[in-house]
Amino acid sequence: MQHASKDAKNWAKDERLKLSLPITRLNVVRRYLLGALFAALIPLALIAGLYDRYSANLLNNLIANRVETNLEATAARMSNFMAVQVKRLENIADLPDATDFFKAGSKNEVSLLLSDILSLEAENPDIYAIELSDNDGTILHTVPRTRSRSQPPSHSTLPLVQHESVEVLGPVLPDKGRPGWFLISKPVMVDHQKIGTVSLRMRLASLTEQTGALVEPSVFEPQIVVFDRVRLTPVGTAAAPKDVIAMSRQFFPGWRIHLVSGRNDYQEPKTYIRYLLMFVAVLTALGVIFLFYKMSMRLSGYLQPLSKGAQAVANGDFSVRVIEDGPGELGILARSYNRMREQLGKLIESRVEVERRAALGSMAAGIAHEIRNPLTTVSTTVHGLKRSEEDPMRKEMFDVISSEIARADDAISEFLNYARPSDPEKEPVSVKEAFRTIKTLISATAHEKHVVISISGESDLVLLIDPTHFRQILLNLMLNAIEAMPGGGHLTIRAYRDSGHAVLLIADDGIGMDDTLQTKIMRPFFTTRANGSGLGLPITKQLVDANDGTIAIESEPQVGTTITLTFPFSRQTSGERS
Amino acid sequence: MRCLLAGAFALLSGLAAPFGASAEPPAVKVGCLFPLTGPGGLYGRDSAVAVQMALDDLSALAVPDYPQLDVKIADTRSKALRSVQIAQSFIEEDEIDFLCGVVSSSIARAVSAKALKHEVFFIGTDHASPSLVSEDLHPYYFRVSNDTRQSMLAGAKYIAENHRLADRPLRIAFVGPDYEYGYQAWEDLRAFLDQQDVDYEVSGEYWPKLFETDYTLYLQQLTASSSDIVVSGHWGLDLVTFVKQAGQFDLFEEAQFMNFDAGANYEIFAELGNDMPLGLVLSARHHVNWPPTERNTDFVNAFHARAGRYPSYAAQGAYAGVWAIAEAVRHAEDPSNKDHIRAELEGLVLPLPEDPKGFMSTMDPASHQLLQVQAIGRTMFNNRYPPATVQLGDWSVYFPPDSWPKLNQGASAD
């Protein structure tokens, strides 16, 4: 039996634990908020990651999507530039006057027509000079004359490309304050015999400038590369080797364009922005986490009391009230909960009272039948025995028996009154008359107990109440008050109107009651007196309730007790007053 | 006021007319080649105005022994072959006694060759390549305005005086037009910097085309070159375009920009207006506000009254050219004898508006190059010569050496 009791206690403890865990750890609010938090953070992390990946590969994307097209277009443009020059050279080499010039041998004379044509061609800013050379490479004539070269550069050290009918020598890099150039040469043929060479000394920058559209100095820049030996900038100067990002096809044999890394001016700001964005993303995530945490705490702050209240109701405690200042639906829920709790408490209390009264009724019927009837028989028999008894001592003993039987009968009557109260028969009752009658009844007792009774209030106050019940209510409360003043004191009775009700105050300055006692005094059979039945106040409350009144007790130990009764007015009286 | 100017020539050449000059001598025929349209057209138009000013001044003189000059001006359009053909036509059809003018040095070299071939004097007024008075020099060529060698000599002295660095070599980049004029300017500047013992290193050499319109690639290279000084050899609209575009690359904030030969030409200031940056170090062969002499002021105002605009330095060259021919013919013992004319030209001393007080332009007989003062200044606000809002100030004045400076350079023009 003892073991079973221990198990029951443990079970109850476990249940409390189960109920309390969701509140303190992962309650529903926190779970939902956590879910929402992940729903917010995962896309944020994904977007931040994708953006970071995109920005990290920005250069590659740019090149892949845009620049490679431009690279090929530029290569085509440069290829066309070379083709135009070759065509120009062919036009000169095919001139009969050019052939005549070389045929003349040592008497080489440039005809006026050829001279004018060469001068005209040499006015092209892309051409520095036009050279006419013999088969040994000796320059016989240069147009314009002022741009003659003293010595031809060594063929062995310069890149040389033979392409179709022309030969490209160079490039010759800028040196000693002179710009760079390259030579396009075409042999002049007679009967399949080479009799001389016509050459265009080209401005190197005119070719390299074609790559200008590819220049993005902060990101990348083009280089013209010849046989991987010579590297040129877009302005025709020597370039240093750099990381190659992309390269074009050969726009002329051995010549191609490389895209190389630029000054990378954007790298630092790009990295800065990248880290800044990552920092902002992390900060946003932390902000979202903090926000969700605060929301979780706040919602839990409103929901936990509701949960605890619900647990208390489940455990039969209807006294736990929750705070109703929550926002929106939470406030409504709290207010609804409190109303539900109160109504449920009243319902259960009422139900218990009904059942208790039914039990008391059954018991009262049993007592009346099983005890009162035998007591009546005993009382009648004792009365008969007493009449026939001569012995005074025995007569006195019979009187004692009769007295005790009468006392037991009174107790039973009192119990029956409580268990089966009579229905009130309400009629207008003058409070003044009622007070006066009661005072008369208890004045002897009061005097004996050194209690001073004072009555005050509105003299014309009339209640609609059962006069018998009202008299018993006042009698019970006033006798209790006198009992509460064992050393004497003051009993004050006052009546007045308040908010449509008649209010009666019965106040004493007796020993008073603490809170614990106050919660118990309305219970049946609870008494602090040795000869008390414990039914006085319960019956009083029952009578008050039966007459649509209320009873409230305020008491303080060693100060006194004040009992406040409220009853409805008599309509007749109220109408008369109004 | 121009009478005063002409009077100065009269005083110099002597008031007395030669005795026995009874017959009217034939007019001296002069064929001038200027670009009147196209690139450099303004130079030609200014030259034409100045030629007429000089002729009017000559006519206004009360001195009877100045020759009659018959000047023809042809538009070369800055084309070499066209220029040579015009020169040929002047020589063979018009039988001119003097060729004059020519703005572009490369064209001048071709015309000079033609002059030599036909033994006709060629008075260069505006082109500035030293090649014409060195490797191309011949007995019939004379130049009456400073060339780039003289302006670069002054420029090197300016850098030596104002921009030496104590702790490291000066980084100098050069950008100039891709032809002889630019090459010579850069070569001469380096030679003179060496002469001045300037510790420097070349941070870049760039040769955009003559008459280029987009300098983006070159400006990118220049701004990346970390130069202390960027020396420009551009002239005319090339310089205007370059300065406008350079402003977008912050070149003038990153380096000291200098142009010693043509940068301070009035035309540049007028074209750029408020776009002309302040603090640039520039010079030119003539300035509207320097020297602050009465003669120069008169010349500038007279030109403005005649043309409605202020003169570029080309006007001064053309004005000097006409006067040089007149003086040479006037003083030649036998004007029909080319040796006599040459002798007079070789001994020429001309008081020109661009000469500061106490100085006269003097011909170097060995190089046939007129020796003139070169004044370098910094651009500053000055709206006295609208539409330009900037002129030079804070002057540094460099007088020429006794003879045209020769340099031991074996380079030949490409």
TrEMBL record, chain A:
One of its GO terms (cellular component) is membrane. Keywords: ATP-binding, Kinase, Membrane, Nucleotide-binding, Phosphoprotein, Transferase, Transmembrane, Transmembrane helix, Two-component regulatory system. Its main location: membrane. Coiled coil: none annotated. Residues 366-571 form the Histidine kinase domain. Residues 297-349 form the HAMP domain. Its EC number is 2.7.13.3. One of its GO terms (molecular function) is phosphorelay sensor kinase activity. It holds the Pfam family HAMP. It is found in: Membrane. The chain crosses the membrane at residues 32-51, 272-293. It catalyses: ATP + protein L-histidine = ADP + protein N-phospho-L-histidine. This is histidine kinase. It comes from Shimia thalassica. The gene is kinE.
From TrEMBL, chain B:
InterPro entries: BCAA_transport (IPR051010), Leu-bd (IPR028081), Peripla_BP_I (IPR028082). Residues 28-369 form the Leucine-binding protein domain. It comes from the Bacteria. One of its GO terms (biological process) is amino acid transport. Transmembrane segments: none annotated. Keywords: Amino-acid transport, Signal, Transport. It holds the Pfam family Peripla_BP_6. SUPFAM superfamilies: Periplasmic binding protein-like I. Residues 1-23 form the signal peptide. The keyword tRNA-binding does not apply. Belongs to the leucine-binding protein family. This is Leucine-, isoleucine-, valine-, threonine-, and alanine-binding protein. It comes from Shimia thalassica. The lineage of its organism: Bacteria, Pseudomonadati, Pseudomonadota, Alphaproteobacteria, Rhodobacterales.
